[in-house]
Amino acid sequence: MYTPEIYKNENQEEIKKFLQENSFGILINQTNGKLCATHIPLELETNEEGNEILYGHISKENPQWNGFIDNDEILAVFSGSHSYISSSWYDHENVPTWNYIAVHVYGKIKIIEGEAVIESLKKLVDKYEQYSENPVRIEDLSKKTMLQARGIVAFEIEITEIQATKKMSQNRDEKNLKNIISELEKTEDFQSIAVANEMRKCPR
Questions:
Q1: Fold of 5-170
Q2: Which residue, among 6, 16, 5, has the nearest Cα to 162 in the 3D structure?
């Protein structure tokens, strides 16, 4: 991912938090000579060896998983808040742009089987059911329902590289920065307001 130096995010704790909070990503690889992409939750965790991994699953009906065997190289793309930035908000002439947060995770994928599949499903469901009034638990589902697990391919991705971009008008002076934030908040658009909040937190 091309990222000018001023917009590179190398704060590992911040990146980790971002991945945990924006875990619905795009899994990209090559299958049968063609690029494939699937939109799925990809959860960050630390394995028994102390290495950070992503885990997830896709349907067996999805041909993308056939490429996991031929070529284990994988790319996972995660997006955060983003918004159009009008150059009319500056005190000088310039071109419009876009503020955004994105993380690209490169790694090697391997298929997991057996009890590890059920464990990965438990972790996934527990994370997203924790605020439900009547949370679903994998342990409580019937054998008949759990037969559906046969229809998925579960995997782990050993992370080899992370590239993170946080473009939040770091190239603007304090006066223009404050004006951009003010204009974003006027839009009442949730994405724009989220960008304004991120801009307030961004170190200068």
A1: Pnp Oxidase; Chain A (2.30.110)
A2: 16
